[in-house]
Amino acid sequence: QVQFVESGGGSKQPGESLRLSCAVSGTFFSGSTLGWWRQFPGNQREMVAQITRTGLTVYTPSVKGRFTISKEDTNNTLYLQMNKLKPEDTAVYYCNKVVQPLAWGQGTQVTVST
What is the spatial distance between Cα 114 and Cα 111, in angstroms, rounded to a whole number? Predict the structure, then answer.
């Protein structure tokens, strides 16, 4: 059974940092393009960052230069390092495959406020 378990969220002040983790069960991890999405209240999920099986990365413009996506194939874990957080980064963050996403996990809440 495929499962995505996101963790690492919390409450931060603007300018601070967080590191999100996504533990993935399933045999597709090392061979797939994986991504982080976020969902604002009442809105659809938007993709934040993605990483290919070879390590190439793409970011949405609003987080480029502040967020870094990475992965460890040896332990099937995806990461999102979030620096210089802004209030507009407040959302629930999810991970999944980019192509043909599977069942979504519970996500992890990130709140940025003064």
Answer: 10
**Whole-number Å distance between alpha carbons of 65 and 86:** 13
Q: How many CB atoms lie within 10 A of CB 55?
A: 10
Task: Identify whether the C-beta of residue 35 lies closer than 8 Å to the C-beta of residue 104.
Answer: no
On whether the CB atoms of residues 95 and 78 are closer than 8 A, the answer is yes
Question: What pLDDT, in 10s, does the model give residues 53-73?
Answer: 999 999 999 999 999 999 999
Predicted pLDDT at 14:
98
3-state SS, residue 86: coil
Which residues, including other chains, have CB under 8 Å from residue 66's CB and lie 6 or more apart?
Answer: 82, 83, 84, 85
Helices (H), 1-114: none
**C-alpha dihedral over 46, 52, 32, 67, to 10 degrees?**
-40
